[in-house]
Amino acid sequence: MAGVSIAAEWQLLGDKYYRKPELYQLRWKNIDLARNKVACAPFGGPIAVIRDDSKIVQLYAESALRKLRIFNSAGRQISETVWRNPGGRLIGLSWTDEQLLVCVTQDGTVYRYDIHSKIIEPNVSMGTECFEHSVVECVFWGNGVVCINEAFQLFCIPDLKNPKPSKLADTGLEEFPLCMAVIEPQYTMSGNVEVLLGVADHILLVEEDGVQTVGDGLGTLQKMVISHNGKLMASFTHDGQLLVMPTDFSSIIFEYSCESTLAPEQLVWCGMDSVLLYWDDMLLMVGPYGDPVRYLYDEPIILIPECDGARILSNVNMEFLQRVPSSTESIFKIGSTEPAALLYDALDHFDRRSAKADENLRLIKSSLPEAVEACIDAAGHEFDPSLQQTLLRAASYGQAFCSQFQRESIQEMSKTLRVLNAVRGPETGIPLSIHQYKLLTPSVLIGRLVNAHHHLLALRISDYLGMNQEVVIMHWACSKLTVSSTVPDATLLEILLDKLKLCRSISYAAVAAHADQSGRRKLAAMLVEHEPLSSKQVPLLLGIGEEDTALAKATESGDTDLVYLVLFHIWQKRPALELFGMIQARPIARDLFIRYARCYKHEFLKDFFLSTGQLHDVAYLLWKESWEIAKNPMASRGSPLHGPRIKLIEKAQNLFAETKEHVFESKAAEEHARLLRIQHELEVSTKQPIFVDSSISDTIRTCIVLGNNRAALKVKTEFKVSEKRWYWLKVFALATIRDWDALEKFSKEKRPPVGFRPFVEACIDAEEKGEAVKYIAKLADPREKAEAYARIGMAKEAADAASQSKDGELLGRLRNTLQDSTASSIFDTLRDRLSFPGVS
Questions:
Q1: Nearest alpha-carbon partner for 691 in 723, 714, 659
Q2: pLDDT recorded at residue 838
Q3: In whole angstroms, what is the distance from residue 564 CA to residue 606 CA?
Q4: For residue 774, what is the DSSP state?
């Protein structure tokens, strides 16, 4: 049947087939894994290599200085750097999920490098205990690390992105554990890391707040490793037993007796179906059923566990050991008569123009959709592009005779395989399987390509998958800026703009910020001109010292928050006169500045008005300040603070006087100052704080009430109060203190210029009818006299006065005012006598 040569390379473990295709012939030279410490990132990630300083090795044509070198999975060197870090021997190194290389030295210092061998500051220390008692061993997982020192103390950094070392519970050990493993926090009930220590015939489970003994009776464990999902643990005992058990140690799932009791150099999981044990020259694969599979090697290898298998790194090549997918097995298994195998054969017969193709299709007609699906799935699991193409052709061939199959599946798989084949190339060297690709997600893959500076490939994949290209173009632009220090600004700007315009939503401000950080401020200013969003553009312009441009852009945007941002920045950075000059020509900025300064910065605003010749505005501010002083709790009546108030008002009056348009304000300020001075003197002389900030009329009235007529006359004369106003004020003031004799005397001094009406009003308001009658009789106008009599309830006198006016309307109004029967009869009699129509 089909695929005999393919299936011939498979190995049977129980009832499952495994295969070990070669991924790459490595491109590196003179790399001996036995002489080096090696760290390989999962998901087809990079390989870090550094000479092992714990071994005595012969140096050939190489420097005595150790170099940290980073390769891709195909052995192409990405970067290198000389290892000059203090801290003693390098204990361990590993890659995080973000592909940062973490190196732990003997004194507990943690160094971090990116994929380009650039150290990431700051370095992290595990603490003084690790400095005093050297680190002996460390175990890494995803984004964390656990270390044990010579004092048998455990220290943990659960998140290397935000490294905060913590000490775990005291183990109480007196000798080093034989082995150590870690259960990641995401797989524990507490959400914290759990460290497993193989001690004597049991295991210590160490957490941050306690230690417990588990796995009693397992025997002495020399190696142990946790599965990818944190549910299983594989361990190797002192008597050569391989044990697999759940991490709750409730039972042993299976065990296998190895031929050697010597602990393997490496013990890893191969997916979730089998365990790999590596000794010096042999790789043993053990599964739950059947005999194990042996692979012999005459050179050292490194096992790299993956979610669906294990990569095998040797000095010369990279292989991938994985379980054969069921779809692939159904097609290529020797003697297979599965529908997928017959469909694959049908394509072969079709290509040879054999009638057997139609016969195969007829045989699997009812199972054709499943066969097509199997061919598509098998294509996704292949690393050989020609075999992928053949399987997809078989699926397409079967699909032509299957109306029930969703036709988008082939296109989707083709798209996925194009992406995978692109990143699997030796130059990129990321040998992802389709299962790993789905777990990693395309966005993370693009991020890794970008970090490795494969920008063109990342851009093409983003475009092909319909993803946002902004991240790729942004990273490329920043990288281009970093490596183009000798390229002139204008030339580099043209290069950058040519690519940045590919993405409409690109942030030119972010690229400009990077240019500024790289010391290219002029280029940053040129780039930020192309930023469409003012909210991003203006802060960066301020950052690169372009305050004038920033203010112009902020005012153009109409965003008051941005304008204030620029104003406050310039306020702090530049002299006041420069700020005034900048905002004077920009009305929006000027008005916003004035509004803010009017509330919070009077002195600064006065300087601004003086610099622009707006003297009247300065005067208004001074006048306002005088009132603010009045509000001061310390400015009690008669206090010395009134002196500064008067001086401020006088200053305001002088400034008003310098402009022809503000004569009224100047006069008002002058009079206000004189009034305050007089009121202050009155408060001092009378020892009563009741004058300041009252009006002229109130001041006169208060003086009269207090019996200080001389002071009242002085105020009248000083402010040229009219005789009519004076009479009104004095009459009511005397009525207030009920000094009726003085009031009568005042009425007889001379004929009042206001008549006797104020006297009547004052008496009526004081409810003194007797006094009111004296002055009502002196009223000249009969109408006023009639209304006055009516107000104090004298109906007959009111009627007599009304009759003199011969005003029918007045009679009617007075009758309605006086509602009693006597008054009504009086007005009725008067009406009949005078015969006024319309009075009812």
A1: 714
A2: 44
A3: 19
A4: H
